[in-house]
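Kindly draft a sequence, keeping tokens residue-aligned:
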Amino acid sequence: PGSVSAAFQEYLQHLGLQDFPCGLGSWNKSRLNARRSPRAEPVGLEEAVPPGEETPEALLELLRDQHSPWALPLDCSPQDRLLRELAVLAPELLRGSRVFQVVKSLRILDKGVEEVDEGVLQFQQLEELILSANQISRVPSAHLPRTLKVLELCYNAVGDLQDLCTQPPPKLQHLGLGYNRLCGPSQKKHLTVDCWPNLVSLDLSFNSLSDLPGLVFQLSTLQNLHILLLQGNPLALTPTYRGFLVDSLPKLSILDDIYIWPEERQHFHGLARQPELIRSEARVVVSIGEMKGLPNPEAFQQLEVGSEGPVITYSYCVTYEF
């Protein structure tokens, strides 16, 4: 599927929400018909169920028992279980477009999704959208529900944030952009409080960001930011990288998955006011342990002093590519 909407429809088919023991069929028809009729008595007890039908409890047991052929795998998401059980208890809520009103968390991982399409707006109650390990290069903010609190786009091909930051969801608390293609100073203008007033957690790890002072200047406007991941970027090679961040962002609690203790913050106190320590360079030390296939100089006969014999010289060049 090329879009999120298409991937969601495929996901629904995989869950089989209209098939036994879910959905509406001969196994629960009387119970659901009784629910629609205002004069009918509710059917819920074992003895009140007509022959050939199942109670809600029995149908749920078929979903929950790991030995059942209808059970979901152990590693399935909570959303999978919720939808399957809801399809047993109230299948009418999942018919047609009603299913979009029920989903609050949507996880579509490694499905070849390339487009965050306008159909995502049908999820009017969506709070969590996980689209990791796909092929998404741009995310139009106009296609994101305003109710969104978590947006995870790890392992995609996002190289620019302009579309995402045009009118982003105002309630977003976590933005995950690790392992993408963000680079250059142009991205930092999109990471301010004007775009993300409620952002608590930000993952920018393993991109190509290199301007540490410029990025920190923008991140300092995010008053609610407590968790930040920047490891794997060139800027993380700066000698004073961690200390500069710790002192520049006093409300930060966790940097690169490491908790910031008060002692560490005190140790780096004042470093943010010394920008001259932030140099755009890195030193790499390479040690050669062993070289094979070269002639051994000791194997040559030493020339006598004053000899006019020929002198043989060998030169070698070692090249490193970064």
Observations:
- Helices lie at 4-15, 29-36, 56-64, 78-89, 99-102, 212-219, 241-248, 262-267.
- The first strand starts at residue 105 and ends at 107.
- The radius of gyration is 30 Å.
